[in-house]
Amino acid sequence: MPLILNHHSVLIVGGGLAGLTAARLFHRAGIRFALLEARDRLGGRILSTDASGDESKSGFDLGPSWFWPGMQPAMAALVKDLGLASFPQHTEGDVMFQLMSGEPPQRYGSLRQEPQSMRLVGGMGAVISALAAEIPEASIRLGARVIRVTHNEEEVEVTFIGADQTERNLKAAHVLFALPPRLLETTITFAPALDAATARRWRDTPTWMAPHAKFFAIYDRPFWREAGLSGTAQSRVGPLVEIHDATTASGQAALFGFVGIPAERRAAIGREALVKASLQQLAQLFGPEATTPCGILLKDWAADSLTATADDRLVGAHPSPDRQPWVGESWRKFISLAGSETSRSDPGYLAGAVEAAERNAKEIISHLISS
User: Fold this and answer.
1) What per-residue string of b and e applies to 130-139 under the rule 16 or more CB within 10 Å gives b?
2) Which among 4, 28, 111, 150 is placed 20 to 30 Å from 219, CA to CA?
3) What are the residues facing 242 on neighbouring strands?
4) pTM of the full predicted structure?
């Protein structure tokens, strides 16, 4: 028999930016909550690591790297409220273009970036650490993989597998799912079953970051800057299609690129061959020093089962804003969705996770206080 645990007003499923933003608001409002995260870490698609791949307070962003304060006021306000420092993405210097295989890359003058992309000192993981510091540690359960959700007209019961592989249940008045709709539909069973339209909509919503892979080459110095290059490059040749300077605020030099090869082919090629081809491409663009990095990082989000489903292995359209309800009538009283993909303003961005989490958390708090 599964172990029945205590009752909460709200359960949050997902410990990324959306889940932690909501948890912070519930804590400030005095709402009793628990947060369940399937990974053994917080952050979700935000992951900042050192050169060896370990989480770091001055790390390289294997997930999202940027935000745009002028366009994304919710994210800018959160960064300011948490007291975090930001710095602009390095763009000073010439840009490289690689148009055809067998032809030398072309060099063009610096392009002014509008709007300016901003990064966080310490990597995007800094926002996760700052949010977690404001939430009671006892309210967070890592290694808790939710498998089933039921309701009985009065409350919701969530069944999850704990870090010790024991099945447990938690009950609550409401559950806030802070994870991608497609992942939610694929991995969690609902009883009563979701209506067909809701299930189809969740399944058809592309998961931000899920099809992509990021490659990092880490160096002892940013040698490309010495040559008057920005570290920015665009390529139609590959394997990297878009490359940027990833040097951290602390000065650890790096280049990173988005891998343009589809997930199935990446898996077939293998890590070793992909790394070799990527370094050869960086050497073509930035010079022979690029072939001798002091560290390599490769994060394939399509191979991450806690981010991507089989449907995410193909690159789809970017999520678009949609104000229609994400939950059908039979479940609307009991659950809400707050993953970035459900944002009304910035779906598929960090700002979208903040907007969706703040909007849903405030609605839940208002309902609980008035009921």
Assistant:
1) bbbeebeeee
2) 111
3) 234, 258
4) 0.95
